[in-house]
Each structure stands twice: as C-alpha cells, then as structure tokens.
Amino acid sequence: MEIAMDLTLRKRIEEALAEDIGPGDITTDALVGPEERGAALILAKEPLTIAGLAVAEAVFRAMDPDVAFLTDREDGDAVEAGQTLVRLRGRMRGLLKAERTALNYLQRLSGIATLSRRWSEALEGTGARLVD
Predict the structure, then answer these.
(1) pLDDT (tens digit per residue) in 74-121
(2) What is the rounded distance in angstroms from the CA atom of residue 79 to the CA atom of residue 84?
(3) In whole angstroms, what is the distance from residue 92 CA to residue 125 CA?
(4) Phi first, then psi: what are they for 86, rounded to 5°?
(5) Distance CA 2, CA 25 (A)
(6) pTM of the model
(7) Distances from the Cα of 24 to the Cαs of 29, 33, 81, in angstroms?
C-alpha cells in the first residue's frame, strides 16, 4: 500500500512528527532498546469508514523504513467496532514514536469519511447530491 510521497505530504508528516516528538521521546529511548522488535494492532473503536491508510503507513515508514504495515483494508471500507485495520511489525522505538501521529491522521481522515458516508446515505433517493 506504500504511496509515493510528494514533497508536501513528506513535509507535513515531518512537521507532525517534530511537533509530537519534539527533541526526542526520552521515555521510549530509555526503556526500549534500539533493536528491540515487536508488533502492534490498530483497531476500530467504533463503526467507521476508513480513510488515511497510506498516510499512516508513510508516518510509520518515516520513523522506520523497514516496518511491516499489513492490512487487507482499503480507504472507503466500512468496518465495525473491534475490527483490525492494520497489523504492524518492526522496531519498537519506531512503532512507539510514530503511533500517535499515525493515529491522529487516521482518526481525522476516517472521521471525515465516516461523516461523509452518513450524509451521502441520508441523501440517497432525494435527488440531492453531497459535494463538499
């Protein structure tokens, strides 16, 4: 699912990571060895329409280019609460440092997609069209 990052997206991701991590994540660096590996899941907390998977992947790859970002979902998929969106494997430092920024993007973009789908469904059959 990896996307070719244009310069604007790369810059936004770098800015978001810099804002979140600042000069460093001293807790992660103090408690997790640089080569310690692990796994994580990203789960839906409520029913939603997924959006932003490629951006989330780009955030994790910005922290660790070797991270395994595994999903059988696509943007636009509807999922129920508790369903897995993404499975991750890689160096724990990268996973921990990227997770908040990646989740912020996924939550914001999926929130917009979910609300858009709800409005679109509410307008179905009315002849009205949702454009913005």
Answers:
(1) 999 999 999 999 999 999 999 999 999 999 999 999 999 999 999 999
(2) 9
(3) 49
(4) -145, 145
(5) 26
(6) 0.88
(7) 8, 15, 33
